[in-house]
Write a structure and sequence with these properties.
Elements lengths: L2 E2 L24 H12 L15 H6 L1 H26 L3 H15 L4 E5 L2 H12 L8 E5 L17 H10 L8 E5 L6 H15 L10 E4 L3 H14 L8 H4 L5 E4 L14 H19 L4 H16 L2 H15 L7 E6 L4 H15 L10 H4 L7 E5 L8 H6 L4 E2 L10 H4 L8 H9 L3 E9 L2 E8 L4 E8 L5 H22 L16 H19 L4 H8 L8 H15 L10 H10 L6 H11 L10 H4 L6 H16 L2 H11 L1
Parallel strand pairs: 1-9, 2-3, 2-4, 4-5, 5-6, 7-8, 7-10
Antiparallel strand pairs: 10-11, 11-12
């Protein structure tokens, strides 16, 4: 059973927010490339790479260096928590947040905690983990409704009007309720539009001053506004629209800058952890009037457990075992099994693997093409104390799930939410559906220990890990489990080569933030590979006749546009004639990882002169890569300046 409001009609057409990159629809390609390049080189902390996890993927692939990279990831968690304690907990902004929550609740209002993707799952988790007595005071809002617990509807992040409409449908009263918007980067339009709307009311003195809206992010406010202003100033336009810039006195910002994530851009890791911890402590203190000393003490105990548990020794065999499950033609799938008390934490890690590492999504029984597809989700969940599919979401969330039922957005329908099944018996059903064996990962609490057990029943293989959680509160146990699972799954995917170094390269471009990241990472990779090589080779590969612009930005932006167009659920970004051109061009790039491999080939001394390339093409690359390069070269030659000028401004 799901809770829903009205059948609001929402336009299904989707456009990137042009102003995000400081480029306008009448910009020339040369201007567009320049401003896009400038924007992409202004790296926020949440997009930066962590020096402590350099070569993470490569170290995960080597069993001799696996223990070391596990420790490195653990140390990033510990450093983030220490930064949280030293710089932010019980600081002025934190105390202001506690006061705002207290005053809102005392005046009869509720606290709306909103986010997209990983940040939205933080909101859902907070409500589940807070004491039962206070749950009616907390309203979690995840972009797209609770369907997004399983699968983020990524285009929602760039739709500000969606944020306002969904907030209204979930009963937000601007004269009484407090809005806390979570965005790790601070740039999610879905979050920022409602913040701006409420800030405007505060400025016009239409609501009490304690109802100033909050942006909870993992970049400093000053850093965020500096970066946001850059592209628009370069483009000669008016200031970029962002609530921190437009309403500096009416918007509160808790910027938890604790350093980069262990995997660059993966906000599900340290960004989500410190955000959830900070908000839980703020809500708990405000609602219970607990002493401030307990907050620091609880966090220190959590840090101590991370330090004293032999996490590397315990996790390494599990990482090797799960990665082996996915290898080769005899690939098996994985079924995680836990009880309802741990389900939301375990499931959050499982479902976030799909967007982070570009894995097949968990199939929905009411979407025929997902049931009939060749590749299925690598892992899924069973809740061992739940035996009926319709009860799984209420067990995970601690309340009835919420669906939007918006016309034009089919994934927001209640029936789609009910198409997921995580009750007992899922393993056998998925084995029948996928025709593949499923190994088991059992996660349980036995006395004061967290126990993770891998089972390959056919091979009679068992690998077990145990972690001491004595002295941790219920919330801190959930955070300990989250961090252990994040390390585990990230390094499993490192062994599977689902990213390079410590950069999210195997991603699907689903929103403007991911588009920017794709272009930036690819451009940096190209520049790095070409520093000591003949640049004329690269120019010949990338050049479009008659368009004198930065060839790297031009080619990368164009190719990333094609990646976006290949997404079956995407609405049109460019006109139909341009889309048809791409489809006929022969490009077979599937994701950013393929693009990086193409650039790697291009920088190994291969001459792509059309008349000579067959003679020069002597590198021993297999047929698939060769075809991709041929198609890419062909497309670069055929693209005219008029086509390019249609694409780049609209991407922005």
């Amino acid at each position: 059973m799901t809770t829903s409001r009205s059948n609001t009609k929402i336009a299904s057409s989707y456009q990137f927010p042009f102003e995000r990159f400081g480029i306008h629809t009448d910009a020339t390609l040369e201007e567009g490339a320049k401003h896009l390049s400038s924007y992409l080189h202004s790296i926020l902390t949440t997009e930066d790479s962590h020096p402590g996890t350099a070569e993470m993927a490569e170290r995960a692939q080597n069993s001799e260096t696996l223990h070391g990279i596990i420790d490195a990831c653990k140390n990033v968690d510990i450093m983030a928590l220490e930064q949280l304690e030293e710089k932010y907990l019980l600081g002025p902004k934190f105390n202001e947040l506690v006061t705002a929550i207290q005053m809102t609740v005392e005046s009869g209002g509720r606290i709306y905690v909103a986010g997209c993707g990983a940040s939205g799952r933080v909101a859902l988790s907070l409500r589940k983990l807070l004491p039962e007595l206070f749950k009616d005071k907390i309203i979690p809002v995840i972009a797209g409704g609770d369907f997004a617990l399983v699968r983020a509807i990524e285009r929602f992040e760039d739709q500000g009007d969606y944020g306002i409409k969904q907030l209204a449908e979930q009963g937000f009263n601007p004269s009484q309720d407090l809005y806390l918007g979570i965005s790790a980067s601070g740039s999610a339009t879905f979050i920022n539009y409602p913040i701006a709307e409420q800030a405007k009311r505060v400025k016009e003195k239409g609501v009490p001053i304690f109802l100033k809206p909050w942006l909870i992010c993992c970049n400093e406010a000053s850093q965020l506004t500096t970066v946001l202003k850059q592209p628009s100033e370069l483009a000669g336009s008016e200031k970029t629209s962002h609530p921190l810039i437009d309403y500096p006195e009416e918007v509160q910002c808790l910027g938890l800058n604790v350093g980069p994530n262990a995997l660059a851009g993966s906000s599900r890791m340290q960004s989500a952890s410190v955000t959830e911890i900070a908000l839980y402590f703020a809500l708990f203190q405000a609602l219970t009037q607990n002493s401030q000393l307990n907050i620091r003490e609880e966090l220190r105990v959590l840090i101590e457990k991370l330090q004293t548990n032999a996490i590397a020794e315990q996790l390494a065999p599990l990482i090797i075992a799960e990665a082996a499950c996915y290898e080769g033609e005899a690939m098996r799938y994985m079924n995680y099994r836990t009880d309802s008390s741990l389900a939301i934490t375990v499931f959050t890690d499982l479902t976030e693997r799909s967007p982070t590492f570009n894995l097949p999504k968990i199939e929905n029984n009411f979407i025929a093409q997902e049931i009939n597809r060749e590749q299925h989700a690598w892992c899924s969940l069973e809740i061992e104390d739940i035996h009926h599919a319709e009860c799984t979401f209420s067990a995970m969330l601690g309340c009835e799930p919420f669906s939007l039922n918006w016309e034009g957005e089919p994934l927001t329908a209640s029936e789609k939410l009910n198409g997921f099944n995580f009750a007992m018996g899922t393993k056998e059903k998925r084995e029948a559906l996928t025709h593949r064996a499923h190994d088991l990962m059992l996660i349980s609490r036995i006395h004061d220990e967290l126990v993770m057990t891998y089972l390959n029943e056919k091979a009679q293989t068992k690998v077990e890990a145990r972690f001491n959680m004595a002295g941790l509160s219920e919330f801190s146990q959930q955070m300990f489990l989250k961090m252990v699972l994040n390390i585990h799954s990230t390094l499993v995917m490192g062994r599977m080569k689902r990213y390079k170094n410590n950069l999210m390269t195997h991603l699907s471009v689903g929103n403007a933030k991911l588009f920017a990241r794709s272009v930036r990472l690819t451009t940096q990779s190209i520049i790095g590979q070409l520093q000591e090589k003949n640049l004329t080779l690269f120019s010949r590969l990338m050049k479009t006749p008659g368009v004198p612009v930065n060839h790297a930005i031009q080619a990368v932006a164009t190719t990333v546009a094609h990646i976006k167009l290949k997404e079956p659920s995407s609405a049109s970004i460019v006109d139909s004639s341009t889309k048809k051109f791409f489809e006929k061009s022969g490009i077979v790039t599937a994701n950013l990882n393929d693009l990086l491999e193409m650039q790697q080939v291009a920088t190994q001394g291969i001459d792509f002169d059309e008349n000579q390339r067959d003679k020069q093409y002597t590198n021993p690359w297999h047929k698939e890569r060769r075809e991709k390069l041929e198609a890419f070269f062909k497309c670069r030659q055929q693209l005219s300046s008029s086509v390019i000028e249609k694409i780049v401004p609209k991407l922005a």
